[in-house]
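thoughts on these tokens:
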Amino acid sequence: MKLNNNPLLQIENLSITFGENEVIHNISYQLYSNEILGIVGESGSGKSVSSLAILGLLPKRISNITSGSIVYNNKDLTQLSNKDFQHIRGKKIAMIFQEPMSSLNPSMSCGKQVQEILLQHTSLSKSASKEKTIALFEKVKLPTPSRIFDAYPHEISGGQKQRVMIAMSIACKPDILIADEPTTALDVTVQKDIINLLKALQEDTKMSIIFITHDLALISEIANRVLVMYKGDIVEQGDVTSIFKNPQHNYTKALINSRPSLNTRFKTLPTIQNYLNNTFSKDIITPQQRKAFHKKLYSNPPLLEVVDVEKEYISKSGWFTKPSVFKAVNQVSFKLYKGETLGLVGESGCGKSTLGNAILQLDKATAGTILYKGTDITKLSRANIRTLRKEIQIIFQDPFSSLNPRIPVGEAIMEPMKVHGIGTTYAERKAKVLDILNRVGLLEGYFNRYPHEFSGGQRQRIGIARTIALQPKLIVCDESVSALDISVQAQVLNLLNELKEDFGFTYIFISHDLAVVKYMSDQLLVMNKGEVEELDDADVIYNNPKTEYTKKLIHAIPKGL
């Protein structure tokens, strides 16, 4: 793509401090008309902070632009007052945030929120702005735009909420759209749809997009140029092909290679630090080794057997309407063996988490049998289910919300040990916790710290520590790495595999990231609309998917160039 010589946005020698700490160090880059610029890097690299500075959205009291300029339309945006920014935000430069649920107002209908932007920045009447909003909903390919106009955010799916955010951001035909991790929490197919939508909108409106993500493979699908950020510096920038085919900086090489490969199964995933220190192992698990492991694994009786499990939900919308039945899980059957990892994949709403909750006895199945060590756990008494909790545990997606912010992490890990009678004294339990903290790569000194004092990756390790403290046999990992940076994700996946080997754990690994699931799984169960779509060896399914639905899921994985 040929770029014109005059940048639409020019950032020169920009430095930003938070208190005494400089978090952005003298960075410079340009955004040209009618281009998509990718900014890639891990959490803390400065990619979101530098983009918030463009819109004047840095927190006023604790942050400060100490040097440099951000020039748009011959104006230095660093010199504008908040009042001046109101004429630019939303109208000339718009932003799509990472989490649409927290960015949308839960007390306003989706249509009203988009209409509000139009009424503020244009001279459209109320009726004309409603028509324009519905037209925008059609443009971003929302189903039944009139219904979604009146729907509240909680009544639509994650992908639909993100489309509402996109409609809001393009409402005033901005020159620049900043998309900050707009697909991180979305299914791989929804992610593909959003990427295609943004590309189509960009071609149609000729606006420029700054696309921020930690996923370099995803950047390759949308961007013309890429800049790579690391610890507040731009370490590399160039066109997308040269960055992928011939990366110069070790950090860029690490970002490209830390993601699980679809072709090679490394015994240990390389992390960013491995690449930067040149300490990673290139040992792989060969198909012959995998076959021998499976032969041994499947010669034993199953640890868990799920037979024709169903889960129905009954909804009643009014006094005089007939209740409607929704089957979230429909006649699902599979066997899980000790030491195995079963991958469970499918789009949002396919029933994978519902099935996980039924196995955990958190939401009882409507029909069917769940045999754990030969016992039907659907018929257990409350007391026996409590005992079972020790053997079947869960690692949650968001460890922060699953930890009590007022309890130090050491106490949080000890709490379930006390409930289940592991250890007889405080000193004995504390010694076990300190040992577990070491085991998951955390320092003993963290025992008395609180959850907010840790990074996302460290919190996930605390969640894992809390789970393994009970010495369970079966662990359900429900989207437990989906919100993590690629390098932290690699560390956590390596840790889960190490623990599986050391303690003989068995995993049900639920995720929408199919590259991760393929790397982790022995068997793969693909779910679609509550039913089993395919069940086979993970490699067999990836190499030769049988159904159109599975083909669509695999085709949607960002592959890189």
In short: The first strand starts at residue 7 and ends at 18. The two ends are 16 Å apart (CA to CA).
